[in-house]
Amino acid sequence: MKYLVIFLCLFAQVALAQRSATKPNIIIINMDDMGYGDTEPYGMTGIATPNFNKMAQEGMRLTHFNVAQAVCSPSRAALLTGTYPNRLGLAGALMPWSEVALNPAEETIASLLKKNGYVTGMLGKWHLGSKAPYFPTNYGFDSFYGIPYSHDMWPVDYDGNPAKAGTPQIKYPILPILEGDRTVANIQTLADQGELGGKLTKRAVEFITKNQQKPFFLYFAQPMPHVPLAVSAKFKGKSSLGLFGDVIMELDWTIGEIIKTLDQYKLSENTILIVTSDNGPWVRFGNHAGSSGGFREGKGTAWEGGTRVPCLIRWKGKVQAGSIFSGLLTNMDILPTVMKLSGSTLPKERIDGIDFSSVLLGKTLKSPREVFYYYYDTNNLKAVRYQNWKLVLPHPTQSYAAGVLGKDGQNGTTLTVNAPMALYDLAHDPGEVYDVQNQYPAMVKKIMVYVEEARADLGDDLTKNKGANRRKPAVVNK
Predict the structure, then answer these.
(1) Whole-angstrom distance, CA of residue 291 vs CA of residue 305
(2) Burial class (CB in 10 A: 0-12, 13-18, 19+), 192
(3) Which residues constitute the domain of residue 454?
(4) Any signal peptide, and if so, which residues (predicted)?
(5) What CATH number corresponds to the domain at position 221?
(6) 9 in active site
(7) Is 428 a catalytic residue?
(8) Catalytic residue among 127, 151, 288, 395
(9) What is the pLDDT of residues 386-439, one digit of tens each?
């Protein structure tokens, strides 16, 4: 009997080791509107972020990580499907009354991992479909607790008072909290908003604890620091940068709770933890907006301030602690990388993401990605990047610099300006200030080849190209 017990224990350890080697847990924490410069590893001053720092110290910090588009819904679609959102027929932030949603036929990180035996859960902000059946549990997630879209889509002004007649907010319905497809509560005040982050964090810890013996995927889509800002009593007034700083400190605490839980259950060496953001800061909200880290403009633009976001990846024992990678990567590249590392299959339909697992595991210093298309609006191709070069195509763009910034939660204004054609060398000019197209005509010519490839493939409304390889979104029944 004694030897049988020893044998069974050894067998269990071998089985666990085999699972660990082939099926790491995956956690993606996706912040909302957190700018490149909003934490200490990326240059923030005045706010202590010890757990963001811990992520950087124990993992890899990506410095040229871009989202596919600089607004909520398209960016989230790109992350979960590994595909340019305009290939999926998605554009702009989906409203509560939007007539389209992410097509359930599209395979997501969740659905692909679920097929490979993973328990899948989502917490936080969805924003890829505004009514059932277009909620997460129909896209591969076993469970969902959170809100269907941005928390400023409610009948309350940014100051926390009920919306007045004639204001844009008056048109929105009450903001629900969903459990699966069912409304279980409503968010009616900024105090309610402030308590949501703590509730989501508690659920994240419970999810990890409950599923510690199984391979799991947790997608934690934090609603903050998108305006209106709100924070729990625990963090209110704790920073020297006002409410925005308080919110960042609470987000940092959330990461700390997850790391602590992983360490407690000895899961850190078998868990890939990714922390990133859906787009750059909504600059026009002034001191209630984040920092682009010195990049040009912010959310809603094709400038680096809109698409360049932080990304920290921790996988103890696999990803070199304290490493930095400065090659071009995008949030579309997470899906194929996770599929490779988990031994899962890729989607049947074409995707645009590229596996960078060899970078994560320290096998190469060269990025597998050389080209990135900057699309915005419905389907406007605004720029193309090749390695460290970025060719900006003539296009209309909103400009925060040409407008007036808000203060203390009040919305500012932006103006639409025309961006001329320009070539920027991001290695020497990350702020996109100096146009060098006349000095490097051969580079302009080279990138224009990629421009025409993008127009033929995905289309371009600016040049009236439809694109040959776009798929249809779901049409929401009214």
Answers:
(1) 9
(2) middle
(3) 373-475
(4) 1-17
(5) 3.40.720.10
(6) no
(7) no
(8) 127
(9) 999 999 999 999 999 999 999 999 999 999 999 999 999 999 999 999 999 999
